[in-house]
Structure formats: structure tokens, C-alpha cells
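pinned: reference chain
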Amino acid sequence: MSKEAPQPQQSEEVDLGQLFKLIGNAFDRLFKFIASIFITIYNAIIALLSHIYNRLIWYVSAVVLGVIVGVVIDLNSKKLYGANMFIETNFNSARQVYENVKEFHQLANIDKDSVELAKKLNIPVSLAATLKGFYIKPDLDENEIAEMYSEFYTRLDSLSQIEMTYDRYKESLTPYNFKIHRIGVASTNKQIYEKIEAGLTKQLSNNAYLNELKEVGIENLKRQDITLSKQISKTDSLVDEYLKIRINESKKEPIAGSGTNLFMGNTEAGTSLIVDESKVLENKLQLEEIRRDINEDLIEKKNVVNVLASFPKTGYDISEWYDKKKFLLPIVFFTIALLVFVFLGLGKFLKEQNKNK
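pinned: its C-alpha cells
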């Protein structure tokens, strides 16, 4: 019998050995590549530090000069102040508000048209010239978004409910979906904010259609309030009548199933309708609650735009560290010095290359 069976096993061992060797070589090359990256970075840092150390006087001089020039510029430049006003938009007026704020920002920051700004805000041109920018964004509240999603979700059909997740709904929202917004104003005059609030609020809702909606809405609420007032008055009269009947009934001998027995218009003989005046009082309380809600609506919808939080009396410094020249210019001067030496070194290297050719 032939004994060639073990040969395939030896071949498989050889193949596995080669495979593991290849894998080992691949990992070895990977680790060497990663190590070479770190070594290159290390060498670059050492070379940079050596370069700076050899020319330390130049770099220190550039940084000191940058600090001096920056301090001088900061002392002679005006500070930038900012303040926020929070508003509530009614009658779907958010789009109009955003467009008006963009117009103000264009006039103040880009066109620098202080004359038109002064005209719109009803302030002197000298004050309008200190305005540097207008900004607006919705005042986001995660709880409010969750409530909006819950209300929106209940109106969807079963298929849409599966597709419309909370994250997808949140991404679909735009600033116009929110009612409360924050308006920021930048200016070099920290005392200007109270002076522009009235004019700015008026201009934010400057739209004939929105003003008509406001007037109609207020008129409807007033009519509804008058109707409710009449209903409450009639309810009071009805309660008084029921109480009189209750008093008269109490003077009589007690009857089983006590209550106020009234025979209403079409009731059959011998059938009594028991009326409890407490139910009428409950109805009155409900009407009073509706009327209170209407009074609140009259206040909330008195204007197209409601100011929830006014501008503070004075603005506050909104400049960042990188806006201050005493921090920015030393970095700029240091970078310029580095680039000059790199350029000189590159020129020297190219000359040596030409000599070697």
C-alpha cells in the first residue's frame, strides 16, 4: 500500500507558516511606518526649536514689537459692546422679523449707512454711526422642541409616524418655527441700547398685512369677551333664581330626592327635572376662566412682536481675545519672522543645489 497520505498535511503546514510570516511582515511594516511618522514629527519639532533658539533675539524682538504695536492700537480703538433683546413673534411674523434684522445688519455692518439707520430707528446720525451689527437667532429650548414634536407626531398617520423620528423632525425645523428669538446688537456706544429699542421693535413688525391681522384678532377677542360677559351675567341671574327656589323649597316639608324640582317646557306630567344650581355655578366658573384666557390673549397679541426682555441700560464687552491686537499682532509678527527665515533658508538651499549641478 502507498503511504502518500501525510504529504498534504505537510503542505498545509508550510502554507500556514508562510501566511503567518506574511501577516507578521505586514504588521512589522505598519509599526515601522507609524514609528517613522512620529520620528519625523519629533525631528521637525527639534529642528524648529533649534532654528528658533539660534535666532531667539529676532523672534523675541518680533513678539515684543507686536505687543507694543497692539497695545497702542487697542488704546486708540473703540471697544465693541453688545446686548440682547428677547422677543416673541405673533401671527407667523418670524419671517418678516428675520428679513428686517438682515436689512439692519446690511445697513450697519456692510453699507455703513448711518443716515438710513438713523431714519429707521429715530435716533441721531452720530448715534447710528456707532452701530456695527444686528443679529438674530431662535431661543432654543429642548423641552419646547420635544413638546412640538409630540403635538406634530399625534397628527400624523401610522406610516408617517414610523418615518418621522425625533432627530429627523428636529433637523427639519427652521428658525421660523419658533416664537421666541434673541436679537443681538453690536455697537461702540454702550449707552445706545435703550435709545434704539422702541424704534427697532416698531421696525421689526413693519408690515401692513400683519398689522391688519393684529387689529382683526384684537377685535375678535373683544367681541368674544363681550359675549362671555353677557353669558356670565345671565348665569348670575339664573343662579339667583335657583337660589330663591331653593330657599322657598327649604321652607316646605322635606321630600325624598331633595333638589330643586323644576318642570321644564315640554316635560310630561308627573316627570320632574331636578336642577342643581351648583352645576350652573360650575358653568359660570368655566366662563370666567375662558374670559381670563381672553384677557391674557389681548395682552399677548396686542402687538405683532412682544418684547419679553428689553435691552439692558448699558452694553457689555463682547470682544474675544483674538480681537485684541495686543494678542493678535505678536502672533502675526512671529509668523512673519518665521516665514522670512524659511524663505531665506530656501533661497540658500536652492543656490547650493545650483552650485552642485
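why pinned: The radius of gyration is 40 Å. Confidence is low (pLDDT under 50) at residues 260-265, 267-273.
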